[in-house]
Amino acid sequence: MANTVPTREEYLYFSLPEKLLFYALTLLSLAFMAKQIWVRVRLWQTGRPIPWRQTRAGKAYWKPRADAVRAYIRNITSNVLAQKKVRSSRPTSGAPMHLLIFYGFVALFIATTLLGINTYSPFKFHKGTYYLVYEATFDSLGLLFIAGIAWAAVRRYASLRQDLGPAALEGTDEQRRFMAHRRRFPLSHDQVDFLILALLFSIGLTGYFVEGMRLSVNRQSWDNVSWVGMLVSRAIGEHPGAVLAYKVSWWLHAALVLSFFAVLPQLRIRHVLLAILTSADPLPDAMGKLRTIPMEEVEATEQVGAKFAKDYSRWHLMSTDACMECGRCTEVCPAWNVGKVLNPKQIVQDVRGAMLDGRSVAEAISEEALWACTTCNACVEACPVLIRHVDLIVDARRNLVSEGALAGSAATMLRQVGSTSNAWGQPASSREDWMKDLDIPLCRDGVEFEYLLWVGCAGATDPGAINTTKATAKLLKKAGVKFACLGREEACTGDPARRIGEEFLFQDKAAANVSVFERYQVKKIVTACPHCFNSFKNEYGDFGAHVEVFHHTQLLQQLVTKGQLLAATPDRGTVAIHDPCYLGRVNEEVDAPRAMLSGLAVEPEFSGKKTRCCGAGGGRMWMEEPTTQRPGNARAEQLIATGAKTVAVACPFCRIMLGDSLKQVSPTDEIRLVDLAELMQSANE
């Protein structure tokens, strides 16, 4: 009696010896892949143990932090399954193409997994309605994979027709390195990519061909649901050698799949596996939090920071292997976009190279590239596999600073922070100059206060930033907020020192400031500086601080919501807003600044979490650079392009850098640069 339940026979026309041969080849392929991965694992293990590894009674054990587990689930869901970061990329980055390949690949993987479970387990569910839905669904989704691969091949061919290829895909340093090793590596990245694309395309096509041949030799009444396979079957037609042709095509398809497994660990496509591992970030902390180096580590290693690749954590080393080399990090890098040598993608590749050849990190990357970083975290925000480029760079900087490699104005800034507790080198007494005739309450006078108004080095020194400080203080007074300042007792948070690489100067300042907070029982802090805000919010907890931190835009926006203050209401199209990196991207606050302008701000080309850097972060404020290579100039052009005659900022660093850049980019135009607090003050006078 003919089978009337929709299903299909596995290993059709295959004998037991043929099945055993297939199993043996599969095991060999997977074993070869596992061996290559294990070689990489051994390299990762040369790094610092990740924080999950703890000890009890002298024995190591694994105990994931609860927040790390939650972060892993969140990362897997949003960044791997939902491809959040890829989807948010600009179309020019090849995001649509990548999504087709990814979801097509996932569909084929799910289909193969379900079929394997049915074949090798006692549960036989591959029949009936489920089977019909399975065939119709995955027969269709497989086309996504083939379409994506074809798109990728066309895109790669187009890049080859350019002299240097797309800048985000091939950095000039990488090209020079490749050309220098041409004999050792006879194929370029593009040629290897073409071969892999050809392999994947062949896997997709032969899969459909095998399906078509199966239907030609064993067609059932329900097989019309496999509509792509049916089209292939009809195109093939019937012929005497159909069974042999089916078996040959089956073995060809299997050989291609097993070959893919065998070469996977050696190719950039290995990120399909490693991205799942890098999503298990053992440090699910804020983007703006840098690792605190304990003195015990320095005493044990006799060095500060990362001199060699082994000085990074095992997770960081693994993340360099997970790099998909898509170039999204380089595409958004403010330094790269103005012609500097810093190439975030190349940084990752160079650290990976240093892990192999034992060179120092500074030698592999170049000191010039390391000092060019503004630590804006645009690269980190853009990376689909969660690589922390800034961690790699700052840890290398720490080692360079500890060995005396930093000189010039940046080194002067560090000395000033150490001697005067002010990055501009001003004496402590000058921190109260802005208060004259304003009747500002001071903590040392024993006043009752709810918020500590943290002024910051710039807010007490730079004329433009002082205007912001005054406007903020006046608004808080008008709203009836109880606040106080530290005045001459305030010291630099240490942020510029930490980001430039002087870790223990930062730790000294952090410990001193926390001591002051404890003396005055500070519970809430409000500051107009996103860098101070980030340090207090994300980093001071390592030094015992237990404070609630607000950026001045956040607190002022709350006061507007409560009706205690009025938002500014500029004419539509007159005010462009610039998001500071350490507020909009690093700490994800983009709504409060806009609420202060009643939602009437003009948005530049890059805004919110995708904002572009003014060039001041990472200690770059105190470093010299050619006028032709200033990130602030590129940002000024984007702001001027909005047509607005007023630019609103929310960071003293941005105000300083953009003030200079606006004058350089458009010396004849009168562009007004103000802080959001000043615009609100005008509305509340």
Structural write-up:
The structure is a single chain. The protein has 685 residues and is mainly alpha-helical. The chain has 30 helices and nine strands. It has helices spanning 16-44, 66-81, 84-87, 95-120, 128-160, 172-180, 189-217, 227-236, 242-263, 271-278, 295-301, 314-322, 328-332, 344-357, 361-365, 367-371, 378-382, 389-402, 409-420, 456-461, 463-478, 495-500, 503-519, 530-539, 552-561, 581-585, 591-595, 631-640, 652-665, 676-683, and strands at 53-56, 59-62, 451-454, 483-484, 524-527, 548-551, 575-577, 646-649, 672-675. The protein has a four-stranded parallel beta sheet with strand order 4-3-5-6, sandwiched between helices. It has a three-stranded parallel beta sheet with strand order 7-8-9. Strands 1-2 form a two-stranded antiparallel ribbon. β5, α24 and β6 form a beta-alpha-beta unit. α1 crosses α12, α10 runs antiparallel to α12 and α21 (463-478) packs across α30 (676-683). The N and C termini lie far apart (92 Å).
Features:
685 residues; 4-stranded parallel beta sheet; mainly alpha; 9 strands
Helices and strands in order, then pairings?
Layout: H1 16-44, E1 53-56, E2 59-62, H2 66-81, H3 84-87, H4 95-120, H5 128-160, H6 172-180, H7 189-217, H8 227-236, H9 242-263, H10 271-278, H11 295-301, H12 314-322, H13 328-332, H14 344-357, H15 361-365, H16 367-371, H17 378-382, H18 389-402, H19 409-420, E3 451-454, H20 456-461, H21 463-478, E4 483-484, H22 495-500, H23 503-519, E5 524-527, H24 530-539, E6 548-551, H25 552-561, E7 575-577, H26 581-585, H27 591-595, H28 631-640, E8 646-649, H29 652-665, E9 672-675, H30 676-683
Parallel strand pairs: 3-4, 3-5, 5-6, 7-8, 8-9
Antiparallel strand pairs: 1-2
